[in-house]
Specification:
Order of helices and strands of chain B: HHEEEHEEE
Strand order of the largest sheet of chain B: 1-2-3-5-4
Largest sheet of chain B: 5 strands, mixed, barrel
Radius of gyration of chain A: 20 Å
Number of helices of chain B: 3
Structural class of chain B: alpha+beta
Shape of chain B: globular
Shape of chain A: globular
Largest interface: A-B, 51 and 47 residues
Largest sheet of chain A: 9 strands, mixed, barrel
Oligomer: heterodimer
């Protein structure tokens, strides 16, 4: 007797390079505002005003990874989805060590985790949907709606995501972000990513710190990177 | 006129050209420092290409006018990954290339801007978008 149930069906193939829908990110800046706590709202209003005035706060000025959930929410760069036995790995572009591991081998979250910018993620398939639960995110990781407007989550954040294909090459990440220190309740948002198999896109190596370095030579003639002093002329760096 | 204001504030930096040529943006960030409502155009020559993360920068020497000395601007653009997927290579613009540069100037009047599009002498245009449907 052959029994084919949905539970045994192979999950959809999500491997490949996915590009974020930046236009939709911009749309949601205005149309899907997080439920900021009253104490946080003045901070957000100030950040929005500063951006409007041309003095954007730089959420990403430190060369750290976006962290979660900002990577999924505000990134302008592609990521590569890699499925291997027992885990899914998301490799990011720009900012060293932008990487998420989603364990799919049934393990639980650690009892005494070391918080990280991307947190600890475990996932399981429910039919065609990958449900991912993320905890242990460092309190310094931003809840941000843009590269200029966001606040640190301040701790105890939990993120539940449901990844699913809305079309053959359109990935939706339905996020539910619970950040009790800065949000009055869960913030739900869907972020859209697209892949273009015919274009054979790759993610590129991207070390943010290279922007502060120039190529040079050491005393032995070796090729090295050297720090470059801040200079008032020609710099496009904006003050934080 | 905004362009005149921007140009007035451009400082001749030959003495510190090395600094100006090699300094690049630090981290990626909101584009709000650039005034997208006042797009500018200038013709000039590429002096330096900083094909690096997180953002690429080009140092441009505008064409001299009325015998004025050459002045440089720094144009920031997106990342190597985004430009590569938009059809650029690190050779698309090289030192010595002459082109028309379309950019959004820095709001604070410093000599630079966000590069929106480049028109090469043969009419070919270089621009970028985050996804190919926008190209």
């Amino acid at each position: 007797m052959s029994v084919v149930s949905r539970a045994w069906a192979a999950p959809p193939d999500l491997d490949g390079v996915w590009l974020p829908d930046v236009k939709d990110q911009k749309r949601q800046e205005k149309e899907n505002v997080p439920p900021w706590m009253p104490a946080v709202q003045p901070q957000i209003a100030h950040l929005a005003a500063e951006e409007k005035a041309g003095r954007p706060f730089l959420v990403l000025s430190h060369c750290l990874p976006h962290g979660m959930p900002s990577w999924m929410v505000i990134t302008h760069n592609a990521f590569e989805w890699l499925t291997t036995p027992g885990r899914i790995t998301l490799l990011g572009e720009v900012d060293g060590n932008r990487m998420r591991r989603i364990y799919t081998d049934g393990r639980p979250h650690p009892e005494d985790p070391d918080p990280t910018l991307h947190g600890h993620s475990i996932g399981h398939w429910e039919g065609d949907v990958l449900t991912v639960d993320t905890t242990a995110v460092a309190p310094q990781a931003y809840v941000a709606i843009s590269e200029a407007v966001g606040v640190p989550n301040d701790g105890d954040m939990r993120i539940v995501e449901r990844f699913h294909l809305a079309a053959a090459n359109v990935l939706h990440d339905d996020l539910e972000i619970t950040a009790p220190k800065v949000l009055t309740g869960p913030w739900k948002t869907t972020r859209i990513f697209r892949r273009y198999p015919d274009r054979h896109y790759e993610i590129t190596e991207g070390e943010c710190e290279q922007g502060d370095l120039v190529t040079g030579k050491d005393q032995f003639g070796n090729d090295i990177f050297v720090s470059h002093p801040q200079n008032p002329d020609g710099s496009v760096r904006t003050a934080k | 006129m905004r362009k005149a204001k921007v140009l007035r504030k451009i400082v001749f930096v030959a003495a510190v050209l090395t600094f100006a040529l090699s300094r690049t943006a630090s981290a990626h960030h909101s584009g709000a420092a650039y005034d997208m409502d006042y797009p500018q155009t200038l013709e000039g020559t590429v002096k330096t290409v900083n094909w690096t993360n997180p953002h690429i920068t080009f140092v441009i020497e505008p064409d001299a006018k009325d015998g004025k000395p050459a002045e440089t601007l720094v144009f920031e653009v997106s990342s190597p990954g985004v430009l590569t997927r938009s059809g650029w290579t690190k050779h698309s613009l090289q030192p010595g290339d002459h082109a028309v540069f379309h950019y959004a100037p820095l709001r604070d009047g410093r000599p630079g801007g966000f590069l929106m599009k480049v028109t090469l002498p043969d009419g070919k245009e270089l621009s970028f978008s985050f996804s190919p449907t926008e190209q």
